[in-house]
Amino acid sequence: MESMKNYIEDAEAALLHTYNRFQVVLDKGEGVYLYDMEGKKYLDFCAGIAVFALGYGNKIYNDALKEQIDKVIHTSNYYYNIPAIEAAKKLKKISGMDRVFFTNSGAESIEGAIKAARKYAYLKDGRTDHEIIAMEHSFHGRTMGALSVTGNKKYREAFEPMIGNIRFATLNDFQSVLDQVTDKTCAILFETVQGEGGIYPATEEFMKQVKALCEERDILMILDEIQCGMGRCGEYYAWQRYGIKPDIMTSAKALGCGVPVGAFMMTEKVAAHSLTSGDHGTTYGGNPLAGAAINAVLDLFEENHIIEHVNQIGDYLANRLDELVDKYDFITERRGVKLMQGLVFDRPVGDIIGKALEKGLILINAGPNIIRFVPPLVIEEENVDKMIEILTSCLQ
Ligand SMILES: *Cc1c(COP(=O)(O)O)cnc(C)c1O
């Protein structure tokens, strides 16, 4: 067999250089551990960027996929299929939304949400110059629409012009939102907990103020739950912690636990007055394999009481991280909700993450100075303790 080094060289010769990858070839997973092709074991606190909620190699999930593969993988959205119908019913139940559109990724879900909001406003007044307010430091994906609402110049600049009429405000600064509202505003879009931008949770006050503003002006509130949703913050969707409800929301990442699926969902009010026959589509979205993945994931969430588990283990993780904040002067803050946490350093964290990888711990950053913790939702206290032990040894 070729060596890991050879594979990495082959990768660098064949793949487009859009990632600075860590120098490992991951080959298999088991529970909360990943193994590289040389058999080295890694404790995984990244979960494929908040994707693999159930841990690797879950037999029930894997069997459900295998069974669906043997039946039929793809049919097309010209026809109905049972897995997608079941998945949509389940998603409605856990989210309280009324209608679901299945996509293949997070970015594609954002695209759909933007289109739904623009169409809703268009049907009201016939104008074609509506504006969307998004947040600084946000991240919504790499396609042109999603990039246009991503509040980070670094990702956008080389690809200008973006889609037009996007204005930026600051998360948790309601006045900054008010300052951007005009009679053309059709939507206010943000992550309930900002992920890539550095793990900033929206405050309850901000959520309620935006919600009230949206109701008063018939503006649509769109919440991006692609990273913070699916149980990670102790509810199926993080906004459910706040006693409000968005008009449109997006989901992806852990929704399929590794099978590439996403969704945007909306209330009946929006559904009845926005996208209609011929307005939107996708070839793969909601195909039988994707549907089977979502069904298996949601069934396992319920059977294994994942949400309850996250609430317990999330507090444990937060406490253990707080100990590090107390202990080290160069760690300034912990931020986050349950199993979506950030540890803020007064210096770049790249070296620490590199050292951790050498010692068999997978971590990722969220911005240069922040280590992000988005482990599989099935982690246990002993996994948290082990992570803290390895991380501490990298801080000396
Ligand atoms: C990852 C992410 C996206 C983009 O999802 P992709 O599946 O990579 O397109 C959008 N919004 C948030 C909050 C994300 O974390």
Automatic annotation (TrEMBL):
InterPro entries: AcOrn/SuccOrn_fam, Aminotrans_3, Aminotrans_3_PPA_site, Class-III_PLP-dep_AT, PyrdxlP-dep_Trfase, PyrdxlP-dep_Trfase_major, PyrdxlP-dep_Trfase_small. Its EC number is 2.6.1.11. It is found in: Cytoplasm. CDD domains: OAT_like. The keyword Cytoplasm applies. Its cofactor is pyridoxal 5'-phosphate. N(2)-acetyl-L-ornithine binds at residues 142, 282. Pyridoxal 5'-phosphate binds at residues 106-107, 139, 224-227, 283. GO terms for molecular function: transaminase activity. Binds 1 pyridoxal phosphate per subunit. Belongs to the class-III pyridoxal-phosphate-dependent aminotransferase family. ArgD subfamily. May also have succinyldiaminopimelate aminotransferase activity, thus carrying out the corresponding step in lysine biosynthesis. Homodimer. This is Acetylornithine aminotransferase. It comes from Suilimivivens aceti.
